[in-house]
Amino acid sequence: MEEKKLTGKIARERIYLMETPRPPAGLIEAFKSLGDATGIVSDVMDQLGMTWTVPATLLKPTIAGTCIVGPALTVRNIVQREHVYETARNSVNKMAEFEAHNLACPGDVLVLEGVAGISNMGGISAQIAKRQGEAGAVVSGGIRDIAHSRRVQFPLWASEVTPITGKWRLETVAINTDIEIFGVRVAPGDIVIADDTGVCFIPRARAAEVLELARKKSAAEDERCRSIDAGVAIADLPKRNRESA
Amino acid sequence: MEEKKLTGKIARERIYLMETPRPPAGLIEAFKSLGDATGIVSDVMDQLGMTWTVPATLLKPTIAGTCIVGPALTVRNIVQREHVYETARNSVNKMAEFEAHNLACPGDVLVLEGVAGISNMGGISAQIAKRQGEAGAVVSGGIRDIAHSRRVQFPLWASEVTPITGKWRLETVAINTDIEIFGVRVAPGDIVIADDTGVCFIPRARAAEVLELARKKSAAEDERCRSIDAGVAIADLPKRNRESA
Amino acid sequence: MEEKKLTGKIARERIYLMETPRPPAGLIEAFKSLGDATGIVSDVMDQLGMTWTVPATLLKPTIAGTCIVGPALTVRNIVQREHVYETARNSVNKMAEFEAHNLACPGDVLVLEGVAGISNMGGISAQIAKRQGEAGAVVSGGIRDIAHSRRVQFPLWASEVTPITGKWRLETVAINTDIEIFGVRVAPGDIVIADDTGVCFIPRARAAEVLELARKKSAAEDERCRSIDAGVAIADLPKRNRESA
Amino acid sequence: MEEKKLTGKIARERIYLMETPRPPAGLIEAFKSLGDATGIVSDVMDQLGMTWTVPATLLKPTIAGTCIVGPALTVRNIVQREHVYETARNSVNKMAEFEAHNLACPGDVLVLEGVAGISNMGGISAQIAKRQGEAGAVVSGGIRDIAHSRRVQFPLWASEVTPITGKWRLETVAINTDIEIFGVRVAPGDIVIADDTGVCFIPRARAAEVLELARKKSAAEDERCRSIDAGVAIADLPKRNRESA
Amino acid sequence: MEEKKLTGKIARERIYLMETPRPPAGLIEAFKSLGDATGIVSDVMDQLGMTWTVPATLLKPTIAGTCIVGPALTVRNIVQREHVYETARNSVNKMAEFEAHNLACPGDVLVLEGVAGISNMGGISAQIAKRQGEAGAVVSGGIRDIAHSRRVQFPLWASEVTPITGKWRLETVAINTDIEIFGVRVAPGDIVIADDTGVCFIPRARAAEVLELARKKSAAEDERCRSIDAGVAIADLPKRNRESA
Amino acid sequence: MEEKKLTGKIARERIYLMETPRPPAGLIEAFKSLGDATGIVSDVMDQLGMTWTVPATLLKPTIAGTCIVGPALTVRNIVQREHVYETARNSVNKMAEFEAHNLACPGDVLVLEGVAGISNMGGISAQIAKRQGEAGAVVSGGIRDIAHSRRVQFPLWASEVTPITGKWRLETVAINTDIEIFGVRVAPGDIVIADDTGVCFIPRARAAEVLELARKKSAAEDERCRSIDAGVAIADLPKRNRESA
Q1: Which of B75, B240, B225, B191 is nearest to B143 (CA)?
Q2: pLDDT tops 70 at residue C1
Q3: Which residue from E240, E202, E48, E212 is spatially nearest to F89, judged by alpha carbons?
Q4: Which single residue of A160, C38, E107, F136 could bond A142 by disulfide (Cβ 3.0 to 4.6 Å)?
Q5: Three-class SS state of B103
Q6: Are 3 or more Cβ–Cβ pairs between E and F shorter than 8 Å?
Q7: Does residue C137 sit in helix, strand or coil?
């Protein structure tokens, strides 16, 4: 991995990890098998005292019906100092999420603490993310070229959609360091789960614990759904116990 | 109806009516035959001095292209007093919209004055509402498990979508009493009409009057549409009279 | 054009131009051939020192996947002075965007500085706009009858969706004069480009200049996309030069 | 008045009235004698079916404890078309509320439909307004130099306070025409009443009627206050009748 | 207390307690002696797992520099069903916080879950609250007649200030029951502490516990302030221990 | 300076500069002599193509009538990862703006990119800042203990006021690095000017240039004020030239 040729778009010392920490084998698949799981995962994290969930009202999906799971590859953008009037004329482009794509492992989820009011990721960026095998992206702030990213079937969750480019307005200042997404602190390698209802961020160290509880809860919910389909009267439905509440 | 077995999730005295008042025969079907009627109904209510309409910008539909009509079965939630850290660990679940499903008659529309920032209704709740024959639900506050409720084809209108559960954060404090939905006061049995453009709440006592005017207006609009299709010049289109304005 | 019969819904002197200035031949088609171009056009305008772009977060499209280009036919609405309680009973209707439809040339884009919180354009209005050959409409403020306008395949970009009519609450005070759409000043005949990502307004006098730069940028982006599909390593992708940045 | 030398900052035809319509003799003084009267005036307008009131939450006073009454001298600003980068360097100043000051009669209240996010009126403008005898100003949008306007004791009600100038970003497009202030339509000569609680706009033609009812209501309220001071038990306080409700 | 003559403005069964539960002797005075204590009290509640605090950004004080402590006398308002156009003409006044003043004991803090966008408490109401010896009022929603309540030195914390009356737009539906203030559930008799920084609601049953910890923390903070005044270097300041953190 | 004893509240490598760059001699005093200068300074920066100004609507002053000028001592906070329920009980305090106070030189202005919704700076912190000779503080996010900071006459500009502590909810992650305050990038040593109207951030390298233009503009404005006081007719006031526009 060290030999990977860098793009030079961001200083080497601002890349805090050259590779996102890999999840344990089978973990991602196990979470995926739960289906649209942000509700269940959020409940389990509640019970463990860590509600790190952002609603779809804030992070809206670009492709309805999609569900992704993967380790977080983090990027942080802040505003540039120079006036866009100058930077646009002189093409002063300090956007460097391409370096993150360069470092991405298949299955990674790009999680980008972006700048509000402008685009932090466009269609070509989505296309290359898709090629690199990333599962999707979560962006606080704007994105653009929605039709393009939908065409290449690369799903994003973002708080804004805007044609106004960030390339002359922002600077990527860190890759694979702790970032903040709508009040949730996300570390590289945290497990990201996103669906139509929202996005959960599970600390890597506790992902196995969350998975185990989520499985039990999911099984209990399936049981309840079967009871409903079987026509059991509401007052006779099995009580939700601690695992399935 | 009195013998219906209750769920025990909410005290009996907090259920103000065991059944939502039934609309006159044929009324629901007549409103349905008007198609996407929130515009027309809102206009009629304007003329009668009662604009009880909430825009789709606030109450967003989960299934585009759906239109529902039915009497309101109302539920009110407020925040719990205990910290979620304790309630989640101890599964202190005070959510009781299941009791409302239990009491629902086919065609009812669940109207829920919910708590903002959290989910007041999830996928299993939508599934059981569907089974009970409810027409749909209108929720001020969050809902979750959107993919689930779409799968069972149960339409909701809600102001937020979030994985964060309300079950440990809210308490259902009333069923079938007057509630407030974004500044509109809704009584049990009020006629709810919801489509892609918004939601109207028609007082039960005046529903027949609204229907009659809405029918006239709808006929006049159809006439105008036919004139347009027939190529009548804009300046020659029939004037909108009082009924059709 | 002078002989065109007017609707009488707005005083003649409030129509500042009887026809929107026509774009040079081929210009609209050339912009359309760029596909979803608001990103590229916004970038070019940045470089020329004029960022007149409104994000889709503010002006949301009613029909996803649609892209329109055309000259702006402008309309301005402000609130009526009388109370809706009286105006609705007396059908005091001061809405006059129908006059704009009456004056529209095929390909025009209706750009409407509307009133917030109410509908400035409904389904019948969309239907007649479609018949007149308008390409679409951009509305700051509310619109209604979304299902109707979708049915006739007339695309709108609007900031709100609400059943509450403007006809008794607003007055159309100008047609084809300068208006303001979310901080952007739009003149009649400006070129409007709208897609899933947002809306750009290009001053008519500079549209050819913008087009030329946009074409170069689009070609460079296509080149980059091909390199990506060809598997070129990210660090080896061609540098974005000034034209393609 | 016709001979008054103009500033040339705005085209003559954009000044719709050279002088704001004068209120009947004694009317302003009579309203002033009611004290902080926006509550009472708003109630009377409610009863007459015209609630044209803007809360202090939106239009915040710069000098607490001040109350003003006077006829509206209206001004409308919209955004400029050129980029501030160019206009600031070239001092392209299209702000013309100075012309309104030039035309002001003593006692006038400047009511300015301004541009959000920038300053529509600064300290020197406030100083000259004070010298011209204006009673105060009401501005939707930003103002600046608050310390300056406080120093010369010129009270303003505005929705924003910001150092960012409008002079290179906005254009004054009309003086003494109908404008819109947070959903209220204001005509030149309307009576403006502003205090710590908000701002009321009374149509000129109905000001005498409003005054008469307001006086009765005010007298009834004084009576109630005296009863309270006299220690009358709450349950024994005189009923509010229609005039004093 | 039972014989207290009621006002009749609200049905007797909607008054859930005729008197707010009284705090233990000395408790209020002890909290008051801590000065501006919302910061300290909020910290203690954090440590006890119950953060029931609303920022001054949401509940703004009308009289800066004031600090109040007292038991909550709760009131809940919701919107009326009828149109204000009718209710104002017919003086249909369903506001009943006067009944709460009637029942108030000296030192009570009126806590009112009000309706947004309109006034839930005016100047005369403040004047009578003052006469009854209430310590102040906390209102979610609007209040009016700010100059009046300041004149009689009755402090309020409210989210909005507006002249638009609630008397014809709202209905008081409960006195001395559980209410919700910006996400905090407040019961009658809860201890309210309000200052320039915000408002804390302490559950009555735990007030003594909170007081004890708050006193320790306050003493530790005083010690730190004295060290600062004495010129102790920052790096040498005493560590904050658990009690004083 | 190197020998200064550190507090240990933040890792040494997260302090990017041990001292904020000092402004040229006389510069601060010269800016101060301009009075409430954010309007003038914002104009000059406009002309130089760098509008780095935040309105008082966003950053509200705690002490009206105060004006400060000084070099920025920057601090950045982000959310902690652990749940407050645990951190509060265990007093896990990661707030380290005290280290910035420790490093402060007299005249510095603390500029803090804080966390929204919680307090980033309290009364004791203000008291020590005052003792260290800091001119004031500018905080994006919440502050608390307003009465305390007013008592020691330490002025702050902040976006929120809340009793809810950040000490268990945030972590100070950098001192004297580039930060972002409401879309403006601020570097350590940038000149901060704050008054009742807002806050300007002048890049250190261009401060002398800004000062020179600001002085000319200020002199021209004084001249205009004198003309106004002298009764010069508005149409005869000296034209604003480029320097004074």
Answers
A1: B75
A2: no
A3: E48
A4: A160
A5: helix
A6: yes
A7: strand
Contact (Cβ atoms closer than 8 angstroms) between residue F13 and residue F99: no
Stretches in chain A below the pLDDT threshold 50: 1, 241-245
Q: Please give the pLDDT value at position A244.
A: 37
CA distances from F78 to A184, C134, D136, F11, F95 (A): 9, 50, 44, 15, 10
According to DSSP, residue A205 is labeled G
pLDDT at C245 exceeding the cut of 70: no
Region E183-191: what's the mean pLDDT?
98
Q: Does E38 touch chain F (CB under 8 A)?
A: yes
Residue F242 has pLDDT above 70, yes or no: no
- Distance (Å, rounded) from C-alpha A12 to C-alpha F14? 18
Cβ–Cβ under 8 Å, residues F138 and F179: no
Report H helices in chain D: 27-32, 38-47, 84-89, 97-103, 123-131, 146-151, 207-229
The interface pTM score, or ipTM, of the predicted complex is 0.94
* Residue C10: per-residue pLDDT: 97
Nearest by CB: B198 against C99, C102, C163: C163
DSSP state of D171: E
pLDDT attached to residue A96: 97
Mean pLDDT of all residues in E6-10 = 95
Looking at the complex, report in whole angstroms how far the Cα of residue B221 sits from the nearest Cα belonging to chain A. Answer: 34
Per the CB < 8 A criterion, the answer to whether E124 and E148 are in contact is yes
Tokens representing D193 are: 């009443």
Query: Can you list the alpha helix ranges (DSSP code H) found in E48-154?
Result: 84-89, 97-103, 123-131, 146-151
Report CB contact under 8 Å: F83, B83.
no
- Please tell me the pTM assigned to this model: 0.96
Is the Cβ pair D162, F197 closer than 8 Å?
yes
Written as six digits, the tokens of E237 are 């300041």
Residues of C with Cβ-Cβ distance to E82 under 8 angstroms:
none
User: What is the DSSP pairing of strand E191-195 with strand E156-161?
Assistant: unpaired
Q: Cα(C100)–Cα(E42) distance, rounded to whole angstroms?
A: 59
Residues making up chain A, counted from first to last: 245
B17 has pLDDT over 80: yes
Interval E184-205 mean pLDDT: 98
For F185, phi then psi, to 5°, come to -90, 125
**pLDDT at position E245, please?**
35
Which chain F residues are within 8 Å of E197, Cβ to Cβ? 144-147, 161-163
Q: What tokens appear for A124 in the block?
A: 């070509």
Q: What are the contacts of E218-227 at 24+ separation with CB within 8 A?
A: E218/E34, E218/E35, E218/E37, E218/E40, E220/E244, E221/E40, E221/F124, E224/F124, E225/F124, E225/F127
Q: Which residues of C touch E87 (CB under 8 A)?
A: none
What stretches of chain E show up as alpha helix (H) in DSSP? 27-32, 38-47, 84-89, 97-103, 123-131, 146-151, 207-229
Taking CA atoms, A203 is separated from A51, A182, B208, F81, in Å, by 11, 16, 57, 9
Dist. CA C29–CA C20, nearest whole Å: 18
Structure tokens at F212: 């020179």
CA D178, D180, D181: angle at the middle one, nearest 5? 135
CA pair distance F101, F78, nearest whole angstrom: 19
Q: What is the pLDDT of residues B73-130, one digit of tens each?
A: 999 999 999 889 899 999 999 999 999 999 999 999 999 999 999 999 999 999 999 9
Interface-testing mutation among B85, B89, B90, with chain F (most F C-beta atoms within 10 A) = B85
Chain B residues with CB under 8 Å of C93 CB are 240, 245
- SS in 3 state form for B173-188? EEECCCEEECCEEECC
A152 has a chain F CB within 8 A of its CB = no
Q: Does F118 touch chain D (CB under 8 A)?
A: no
